Amino acid sequence: MTLVERLVLGDRLALARILTQVENDTPDGRQALSLLYSRTGHAHLIGVTGAPGTGKSSLVNRLAMYFRGQNARVAIAAVDPSSPFTGGAVLGDRVRMKDLAGDDGVFIRSMASRGALGGLARATAAIVQIFDAAGYDIVFIETVGAGQGEVDIARLAHTTLVVEAPGLGDDIQAIKAGILEIADILVVNKADRPGAENTEKALRSVLEIASTRITAGRHHGRMMPTAAAAAASDGVWITPIQRTVSLDGQGIPELASKISEHRTYLQHSGRWRDREHARVSGQVEDILQQSLLHQFHSALPKRRYNEIMQQVFDKHLSPPEAVDLLINAAAQTEGADMALRATLPKASRSRRPK
Ligand SMILES: Nc1nc2c(ncn2[C@@H]2O[C@H](COP(=O)(O)OP(=O)(O)OP(=O)(O)O)[C@@H](O)[C@H]2O)c(=O)[nH]1
Ligand SMILES: [Mg+2]
Hints:
Elements: H1 3-8, H2 12-23, H3 27-36, E1 44-50, H4 56-69, E2 74-80, H5 86-96, E3 106-112, H6 117-133, E4 138-144, H7 148-154, E5 159-164, H8 171-177, E6 185-188, H9 196-216, H10 226-232, E7 241-243, H11 252-269, H12 271-299, H13 302-313, H14 319-331, H15 338-342
Parallel strand pairs: 1-4, 1-5, 2-3, 2-4, 5-6, 6-7
Helix pairs in contact: 2-3, 2-6, 4-11, 6-7, 9-10, 13-14
Guanosine-5'-triphosphate is lined by residues 52-58, 96, 144, 189-190, 192-193, 245-247.
Protein backbone atom coordinates (compact mmCIF):
# COMPACT_ATOMS: atom_id res chain seq x y z
CA MET A 1 0.00 0.00 0.00
CA THR A 2 1.28 3.50 -0.75
CA LEU A 3 1.75 6.13 1.94
CA VAL A 4 -1.13 8.15 0.50
CA GLU A 5 -3.47 5.13 0.64
CA ARG A 6 -2.42 4.53 4.24
CA LEU A 7 -3.01 8.18 5.12
CA VAL A 8 -6.52 8.01 3.72
CA LEU A 9 -7.19 5.00 5.95
CA GLY A 10 -6.15 7.02 8.99
CA ASP A 11 -2.58 5.76 9.48
CA ARG A 12 -0.83 8.37 11.65
CA LEU A 13 2.66 7.21 10.76
CA ALA A 14 1.89 7.64 7.05
CA LEU A 15 0.51 11.10 7.80
CA ALA A 16 3.66 12.06 9.69
CA ARG A 17 5.88 10.85 6.83
CA ILE A 18 3.87 12.70 4.20
CA LEU A 19 3.96 15.87 6.30
CA THR A 20 7.75 15.69 6.36
CA GLN A 21 7.93 15.15 2.60
CA VAL A 22 5.57 18.05 2.01
CA GLU A 23 7.39 20.33 4.43
CA ASN A 24 10.66 19.61 2.63
CA ASP A 25 8.97 20.08 -0.75
CA THR A 26 10.32 16.78 -2.10
CA PRO A 27 9.00 15.23 -5.35
CA ASP A 28 7.17 12.62 -3.24
CA GLY A 29 5.66 15.41 -1.17
CA ARG A 30 4.45 17.21 -4.27
CA GLN A 31 2.97 14.02 -5.63
CA ALA A 32 1.17 13.30 -2.36
CA LEU A 33 -0.25 16.81 -2.39
CA SER A 34 -1.52 16.33 -5.94
CA LEU A 35 -3.11 12.97 -5.17
CA LEU A 36 -4.79 14.34 -2.07
CA TYR A 37 -5.85 17.75 -3.32
CA SER A 38 -9.32 16.71 -4.47
CA ARG A 39 -10.03 15.53 -0.92
CA THR A 40 -9.45 19.00 0.57
CA GLY A 41 -11.92 21.80 1.23
CA HIS A 42 -13.73 20.53 4.31
CA ALA A 43 -11.59 21.66 7.23
CA HIS A 44 -12.14 24.89 9.13
CA LEU A 45 -8.71 26.56 9.20
CA ILE A 46 -8.21 28.65 12.31
CA GLY A 47 -5.17 30.92 12.61
CA VAL A 48 -4.01 31.82 16.12
CA THR A 49 -1.46 34.60 16.33
CA GLY A 50 -0.16 37.15 18.84
CA ALA A 51 2.90 38.27 20.74
CA PRO A 52 5.21 35.68 22.33
CA GLY A 53 3.92 34.23 25.58
CA THR A 54 0.34 35.51 25.37
CA GLY A 55 -0.87 31.94 25.79
CA LYS A 56 -1.56 30.88 22.21
CA SER A 57 -0.48 27.26 22.68
CA SER A 58 -2.40 26.91 25.96
CA LEU A 59 -5.45 28.39 24.27
CA VAL A 60 -5.20 26.07 21.27
CA ASN A 61 -4.82 23.19 23.69
CA ARG A 62 -8.06 24.17 25.43
CA LEU A 63 -9.96 24.80 22.22
CA ALA A 64 -8.78 21.51 20.79
CA MET A 65 -10.05 19.66 23.85
CA TYR A 66 -13.34 21.51 23.61
CA PHE A 67 -13.86 20.64 19.93
CA ARG A 68 -12.81 17.04 20.63
CA GLY A 69 -15.67 16.97 23.10
CA GLN A 70 -17.95 17.74 20.16
CA ASN A 71 -16.41 14.85 18.25
CA ALA A 72 -14.47 16.98 15.78
CA ARG A 73 -11.05 15.73 14.71
CA VAL A 74 -8.45 18.41 15.34
CA ALA A 75 -5.01 19.03 13.84
CA ILE A 76 -2.56 21.66 15.03
CA ALA A 77 0.31 23.19 13.07
CA ALA A 78 2.49 25.21 15.44
CA VAL A 79 4.71 27.51 13.43
CA ASP A 80 7.61 29.20 15.11
CA PRO A 81 9.22 31.70 12.81
CA SER A 82 11.10 33.48 15.60
CA SER A 83 13.16 30.59 16.80
CA PRO A 84 15.78 28.87 14.66
CA PHE A 85 15.99 26.04 17.19
CA THR A 86 13.59 23.23 16.49
CA GLY A 87 14.16 21.50 19.82
CA GLY A 88 12.92 24.31 22.03
CA ALA A 89 9.78 25.02 20.09
CA VAL A 90 8.84 21.39 19.74
CA LEU A 91 9.49 20.58 23.36
CA GLY A 92 7.64 23.61 24.70
CA ASP A 93 4.58 22.97 22.59
CA ARG A 94 4.56 19.24 23.32
CA VAL A 95 4.67 19.85 27.04
CA ARG A 96 1.88 22.40 27.00
CA MET A 97 -0.21 20.34 24.67
CA LYS A 98 0.27 17.22 26.76
CA ASP A 99 -3.42 17.09 27.62
CA LEU A 100 -4.01 15.98 24.08
CA ALA A 101 -1.34 13.30 24.01
CA GLY A 102 -2.64 9.84 23.25
CA ASP A 103 -5.84 11.10 21.66
CA ASP A 104 -6.21 9.62 18.17
CA GLY A 105 -8.47 12.44 17.06
CA VAL A 106 -5.70 15.00 17.51
CA PHE A 107 -2.53 15.47 15.52
CA ILE A 108 0.11 18.06 16.47
CA ARG A 109 2.87 19.18 14.16
CA SER A 110 5.55 21.71 15.10
CA MET A 111 7.41 23.48 12.34
CA ALA A 112 10.51 25.61 12.74
CA SER A 113 11.39 28.18 10.12
CA ARG A 114 14.43 27.55 8.02
CA GLY A 115 15.05 31.17 7.24
CA ALA A 116 12.75 32.19 4.43
CA LEU A 117 9.29 33.17 5.61
CA GLY A 118 7.91 32.84 2.11
CA GLY A 119 9.02 29.24 2.19
CA LEU A 120 7.41 28.77 5.55
CA ALA A 121 4.07 30.13 4.37
CA ARG A 122 4.26 27.79 1.38
CA ALA A 123 5.06 24.79 3.56
CA THR A 124 2.31 25.70 6.01
CA ALA A 125 -0.26 26.00 3.22
CA ALA A 126 0.69 22.54 2.00
CA ILE A 127 0.67 20.97 5.45
CA VAL A 128 -2.74 22.37 6.20
CA GLN A 129 -4.04 20.79 2.98
CA ILE A 130 -2.66 17.42 4.00
CA PHE A 131 -4.47 17.66 7.36
CA ASP A 132 -7.64 18.64 5.53
CA ALA A 133 -7.33 15.69 3.16
CA ALA A 134 -6.62 13.38 6.09
CA GLY A 135 -10.07 14.21 7.43
CA TYR A 136 -9.35 16.68 10.23
CA ASP A 137 -12.38 18.90 10.72
CA ILE A 138 -10.53 21.73 12.42
CA VAL A 139 -6.95 22.78 11.75
CA PHE A 140 -5.27 25.31 14.04
CA ILE A 141 -2.29 27.25 12.74
CA GLU A 142 -0.35 28.89 15.58
CA THR A 143 2.14 31.63 14.68
CA VAL A 144 4.14 34.00 16.86
CA GLY A 145 4.44 37.72 16.30
CA ALA A 146 3.04 40.42 14.12
CA GLY A 147 5.31 40.59 11.09
CA GLN A 148 4.45 40.21 7.43
CA GLY A 149 5.35 36.54 7.61
CA GLU A 150 2.70 35.91 10.25
CA VAL A 151 0.19 37.94 8.30
CA ASP A 152 0.89 35.77 5.25
CA ILE A 153 0.37 32.67 7.31
CA ALA A 154 -2.77 34.09 8.88
CA ARG A 155 -4.17 34.61 5.37
CA LEU A 156 -4.26 30.85 5.03
CA ALA A 157 -6.95 30.71 7.69
CA HIS A 158 -10.69 31.08 7.38
CA THR A 159 -10.87 32.48 10.90
CA THR A 160 -8.03 34.34 12.59
CA LEU A 161 -7.77 34.78 16.35
CA VAL A 162 -5.43 37.47 17.61
CA VAL A 163 -4.41 36.75 21.18
CA GLU A 164 -3.58 39.53 23.62
CA ALA A 165 -2.69 39.37 27.29
CA PRO A 166 -2.75 42.02 29.99
CA GLY A 167 0.45 43.70 30.97
CA LEU A 168 1.83 44.10 27.49
CA GLY A 169 0.60 47.70 27.46
CA ASP A 170 2.31 49.34 24.55
CA ASP A 171 1.83 46.27 22.44
CA ILE A 172 -1.62 47.59 21.69
CA GLN A 173 0.22 50.12 19.54
CA ALA A 174 1.80 47.34 17.53
CA ILE A 175 -1.59 45.77 17.19
CA LYS A 176 -3.07 48.98 15.90
CA ALA A 177 -0.37 49.10 13.28
CA GLY A 178 -1.17 45.90 11.56
CA ILE A 179 -2.27 42.73 13.16
CA LEU A 180 -5.70 43.94 14.16
CA GLU A 181 -6.53 44.10 10.50
CA ILE A 182 -6.34 40.35 10.22
CA ALA A 183 -8.32 39.60 13.40
CA ASP A 184 -11.74 38.00 13.04
CA ILE A 185 -11.90 37.45 16.78
CA LEU A 186 -9.83 39.18 19.46
CA VAL A 187 -8.94 37.17 22.53
CA VAL A 188 -7.83 38.68 25.82
CA ASN A 189 -6.18 35.67 27.41
CA LYS A 190 -4.82 35.55 30.98
CA ALA A 191 -8.01 37.28 32.09
CA ASP A 192 -7.15 36.08 35.60
CA ARG A 193 -4.31 38.61 35.63
CA PRO A 194 -4.69 42.24 36.70
CA GLY A 195 -5.21 44.63 33.82
CA ALA A 196 -7.36 42.36 31.66
CA GLU A 197 -10.12 44.94 31.74
CA ASN A 198 -7.80 47.70 30.54
CA THR A 199 -6.49 45.55 27.73
CA GLU A 200 -10.04 44.85 26.63
CA LYS A 201 -10.94 48.54 26.81
CA ALA A 202 -7.91 49.50 24.75
CA LEU A 203 -8.78 46.91 22.13
CA ARG A 204 -12.37 48.04 22.08
CA SER A 205 -11.38 51.63 21.40
CA VAL A 206 -9.11 50.54 18.58
CA LEU A 207 -12.00 48.56 17.12
CA GLU A 208 -14.29 51.55 17.41
CA ILE A 209 -11.83 53.71 15.52
CA ALA A 210 -11.73 51.06 12.83
CA SER A 211 -15.51 50.90 12.61
CA THR A 212 -15.79 54.70 12.37
CA ARG A 213 -13.57 54.46 9.34
CA ILE A 214 -15.92 51.94 7.81
CA THR A 215 -18.81 54.35 8.09
CA ALA A 216 -16.63 57.05 6.60
CA GLY A 217 -15.92 54.62 3.78
CA ARG A 218 -12.22 55.30 3.84
CA HIS A 219 -11.08 51.72 3.68
CA HIS A 220 -10.56 49.91 0.44
CA GLY A 221 -8.94 46.71 -0.73
CA ARG A 222 -7.49 43.79 1.12
CA MET A 223 -5.95 45.59 4.06
CA MET A 224 -9.15 46.84 5.60
CA PRO A 225 -10.21 45.33 8.89
CA THR A 226 -12.32 42.25 8.50
CA ALA A 227 -15.23 43.98 10.20
CA ALA A 228 -14.93 46.80 7.71
CA ALA A 229 -14.64 44.40 4.82
CA ALA A 230 -17.75 42.60 5.95
CA ALA A 231 -19.75 45.75 6.53
CA ALA A 232 -18.74 46.99 3.11
CA SER A 233 -20.74 44.18 1.51
CA ASP A 234 -24.08 42.67 2.56
CA GLY A 235 -23.06 40.58 5.55
CA VAL A 236 -21.72 42.22 8.68
CA TRP A 237 -19.13 40.70 10.96
CA ILE A 238 -18.23 42.83 13.95
CA THR A 239 -14.94 41.58 15.39
CA PRO A 240 -15.84 40.35 18.89
CA ILE A 241 -13.57 40.39 21.93
CA GLN A 242 -13.51 37.32 24.18
CA ARG A 243 -11.77 37.04 27.54
CA THR A 244 -10.26 33.67 28.38
CA VAL A 245 -8.21 31.95 31.03
CA SER A 246 -6.37 29.13 29.33
CA LEU A 247 -5.16 27.84 32.68
CA ASP A 248 -8.62 26.74 33.80
CA GLY A 249 -10.67 26.98 30.62
CA GLN A 250 -12.82 30.02 31.48
CA GLY A 251 -14.29 31.62 28.38
CA ILE A 252 -13.37 28.67 26.16
CA PRO A 253 -16.94 27.53 25.35
CA GLU A 254 -17.86 31.15 24.52
CA LEU A 255 -14.79 31.50 22.31
CA ALA A 256 -15.58 28.21 20.60
CA SER A 257 -19.10 29.36 19.81
CA LYS A 258 -17.77 32.65 18.38
CA ILE A 259 -15.50 30.58 16.16
CA SER A 260 -18.49 28.53 14.99
CA GLU A 261 -20.51 31.70 14.42
CA HIS A 262 -17.72 33.08 12.27
CA ARG A 263 -17.74 29.93 10.20
CA THR A 264 -21.49 30.21 9.69
CA TYR A 265 -21.11 33.87 8.78
CA LEU A 266 -18.41 33.04 6.21
CA GLN A 267 -20.52 30.33 4.65
CA HIS A 268 -23.72 32.36 4.49
CA SER A 269 -22.06 35.49 3.12
CA GLY A 270 -20.09 33.67 0.43
CA ARG A 271 -16.85 34.70 2.08
CA TRP A 272 -15.85 31.14 2.83
CA ARG A 273 -15.54 30.52 -0.89
CA ASP A 274 -13.81 33.89 -1.40
CA ARG A 275 -11.20 33.02 1.20
CA GLU A 276 -10.71 29.57 -0.30
CA HIS A 277 -10.18 31.09 -3.72
CA ALA A 278 -7.80 33.74 -2.41
CA ARG A 279 -5.80 31.12 -0.56
CA VAL A 280 -5.58 28.71 -3.47
CA SER A 281 -4.71 31.36 -6.03
CA GLY A 282 -2.03 32.70 -3.71
CA GLN A 283 -0.67 29.19 -3.48
CA VAL A 284 -0.64 28.73 -7.26
CA GLU A 285 1.09 32.09 -7.78
CA ASP A 286 3.64 31.19 -5.18
CA ILE A 287 4.47 27.83 -6.77
CA LEU A 288 4.48 29.44 -10.21
CA GLN A 289 7.06 32.03 -9.14
CA GLN A 290 9.18 29.43 -7.47
CA SER A 291 9.11 27.11 -10.44
CA LEU A 292 9.74 29.78 -13.10
CA LEU A 293 12.69 31.02 -11.08
CA HIS A 294 13.96 27.48 -10.80
CA GLN A 295 13.62 26.91 -14.55
CA PHE A 296 15.36 30.19 -15.21
CA HIS A 297 18.33 29.39 -13.04
CA SER A 298 18.73 25.91 -14.43
CA ALA A 299 18.55 27.17 -18.02
CA LEU A 300 21.04 30.01 -17.72
CA PRO A 301 24.72 29.21 -17.14
CA LYS A 302 25.95 30.77 -13.92
CA ARG A 303 28.82 32.38 -15.83
CA ARG A 304 26.45 34.27 -18.14
CA TYR A 305 24.36 35.32 -15.16
CA ASN A 306 27.40 36.71 -13.37
CA GLU A 307 28.55 38.58 -16.50
CA ILE A 308 25.23 40.37 -16.76
CA MET A 309 25.21 41.10 -13.04
CA GLN A 310 28.66 42.60 -13.34
CA GLN A 311 27.33 44.96 -16.00
CA VAL A 312 24.68 46.11 -13.52
CA PHE A 313 27.32 46.63 -10.84
CA ASP A 314 29.35 48.65 -13.34
CA LYS A 315 26.27 50.74 -14.21
CA HIS A 316 26.33 49.64 -17.85
CA LEU A 317 22.90 48.09 -17.44
CA SER A 318 19.95 49.09 -15.29
CA PRO A 319 18.22 46.32 -13.27
CA PRO A 320 15.21 46.20 -15.64
CA GLU A 321 17.51 46.02 -18.68
CA ALA A 322 19.45 43.26 -16.99
CA VAL A 323 16.26 41.27 -16.37
CA ASP A 324 15.29 41.56 -20.03
CA LEU A 325 18.70 40.34 -21.04
CA LEU A 326 18.73 37.55 -18.48
CA ILE A 327 15.35 36.22 -19.53
CA ASN A 328 16.31 36.48 -23.15
CA ALA A 329 19.58 34.68 -22.58
CA ALA A 330 17.92 31.91 -20.55
CA ALA A 331 15.13 31.37 -23.08
CA GLN A 332 17.62 30.98 -25.89
CA THR A 333 19.72 28.35 -24.21
CA GLU A 334 19.50 24.83 -25.55
CA GLY A 335 16.63 22.95 -23.93
CA ALA A 336 15.06 25.96 -22.26
CA ASP A 337 11.60 25.11 -21.07
CA MET A 338 8.59 26.16 -23.14
CA ALA A 339 7.11 27.93 -20.14
CA LEU A 340 10.25 29.97 -19.79
CA ARG A 341 10.20 30.91 -23.48
CA ALA A 342 6.68 32.14 -23.00
CA THR A 343 7.90 34.54 -20.32
CA LEU A 344 10.15 36.31 -22.84
CA PRO A 345 9.29 39.98 -22.92
CA LYS A 346 7.79 40.66 -26.36
CA ALA A 347 10.21 43.44 -27.21
CA SER A 348 13.27 41.34 -26.58
CA ARG A 349 12.09 38.16 -28.24
CA SER A 350 13.95 38.84 -31.47
CA ARG A 351 16.93 40.49 -29.87
CA ARG A 352 20.07 38.44 -29.40
CA PRO A 353 21.78 38.74 -26.06
CA LYS A 354 24.89 40.91 -26.10
N1 LIG B 1 -2.12 33.34 34.40
C1 LIG B 1 -2.28 32.79 33.21
N2 LIG B 1 -1.23 32.22 32.60
C2 LIG B 1 -1.42 31.67 31.38
C3 LIG B 1 -2.68 31.64 30.75
N3 LIG B 1 -2.56 31.04 29.56
C4 LIG B 1 -1.28 30.69 29.44
N4 LIG B 1 -0.58 31.06 30.54
C5 LIG B 1 0.85 30.85 30.80
O1 LIG B 1 1.59 31.69 29.95
C6 LIG B 1 2.80 31.05 29.54
C7 LIG B 1 2.89 31.05 28.03
O2 LIG B 1 1.87 30.22 27.52
P1 LIG B 1 1.94 29.63 26.05
O3 LIG B 1 0.64 28.93 25.83
O4 LIG B 1 3.17 28.87 25.85
O5 LIG B 1 2.01 30.95 25.21
P2 LIG B 1 2.35 31.10 23.66
O6 LIG B 1 1.68 32.36 23.24
O7 LIG B 1 2.01 29.87 22.93
O8 LIG B 1 3.90 31.28 23.70
P3 LIG B 1 4.90 31.26 22.44
O9 LIG B 1 4.46 30.15 21.52
O10 LIG B 1 6.24 31.02 23.04
O11 LIG B 1 4.78 32.61 21.82
C8 LIG B 1 2.76 29.66 30.14
O12 LIG B 1 3.51 29.65 31.31
C9 LIG B 1 1.29 29.45 30.43
O13 LIG B 1 1.07 28.58 31.51
C10 LIG B 1 -3.79 32.24 31.44
O14 LIG B 1 -4.92 32.28 30.99
N5 LIG B 1 -3.52 32.80 32.67
MG1 LIG C 1 3.20 28.68 21.59
